[in-house]
């Protein structure tokens, strides 16, 4: 007698969420179809059915992780309100992001930086940068928006890598310098 197939339309999403938990707990090196299947409480075959390779699973996980900061940007009224200073609004948003659960931010950057060694992740990492540039371009030109993204990444990575404390005043000052460059020698 044939076994009836269980209808589980959210299984793929549960597998991605489980992958994020595994990477958050054990890093990318701890990720395997087996560890994700156990975490998601699904048969091993389900993970390989939905994601033929670990890179496919990592792409889905990175897209999901990117969504968190992207959502904060899209929902931030301060970033779309022209009466609010962009440097202050962006520094405050970074503070909310960095001041929350640090593990989540570390996870997002671990997946983002994995693109250095895993070419399959590079387009997703680029999508994140483009999404942030697009969000910021409503308040400034695209070239300046790219410079702001580079500074945001740099500040966040330095805080994460050094175990330091996020300094909103410093970030606001540096962001303001990009938005309104000080007069000085041109190079």
How are the elements arranged and paired?
Elements: H1 11-26, H2 33-40, H3 44-50, H4 54-75, H5 77-80, H6 86-99, H7 102-113, H8 122-136, H9 142-162, H10 168-179
Helix pairs in contact: 1-2, 1-4, 2-3, 4-7, 4-8, 6-10, 8-9, 9-10
Characterization of this structure:
With 187 residues, the chain is mostly helical. It is 70% helix and 0% strand. The chain is built from 10 helices and no strands. It has helices at residues 11-26, 33-40, 44-50, 54-75, 77-80, 86-99, 102-113, 122-136, 142-162, 168-179. The relative contact order is 0.11. The mean pLDDT is 87.
Please supply descriptive tags for the structure shown above:
10 helices, 187 residues, mainly alpha, 70% helix
pLDDT averaged over residues: 87
Q: Looking at the structure, what is the overall shape?
A: elongated
Structural class: mainly alpha
Alpha-carbon distance between the two ends: 77 Å
Tell me the major beta sheet: none
Would you kindly provide a brief summary of this structure?
This protein has 187 residues and is mainly α. The chain contains 10 helices and no strands.
């Amino acid at each position: 007698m044939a076994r009836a197939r269980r209808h589980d339309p959210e299984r793929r999403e549960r597998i991605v969420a489980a992958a994020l938990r595994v990477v958050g707990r054990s890093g990318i090196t701890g990720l395997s179809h087996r560890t994700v299947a156990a975490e998601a409480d699904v048969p091993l075959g389900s993970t390989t059915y939905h994601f033929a390779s670990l890179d496919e699973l990592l792409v889905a996980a990175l897209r999901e992780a990117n969504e968190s900061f992207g959502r904060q940007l899209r929902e931030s009224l301060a970033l779309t309100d022209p009466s609010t200073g962009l440097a202050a609004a962006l520094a405050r948003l970074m503070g909310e992001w960095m001041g929350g659960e640090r593990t989540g931010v570390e996870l997002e950057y671990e997946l983002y930086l994995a693109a250095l060694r895993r070419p399959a992740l590079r387009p997703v990492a680029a999508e994140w940068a483009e999404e942030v540039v697009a969000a910021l371009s409503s308040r400034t030109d695209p070239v300046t928006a790219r410079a702001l993204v580079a500074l945001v990444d740099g500040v966040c990575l330095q805080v994460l890598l050094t175990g330091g404390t996020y300094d909103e005043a410093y970030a606001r000052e540096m962001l303001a310098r990009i938005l309104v460059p000080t007069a000085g020698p041109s190079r």
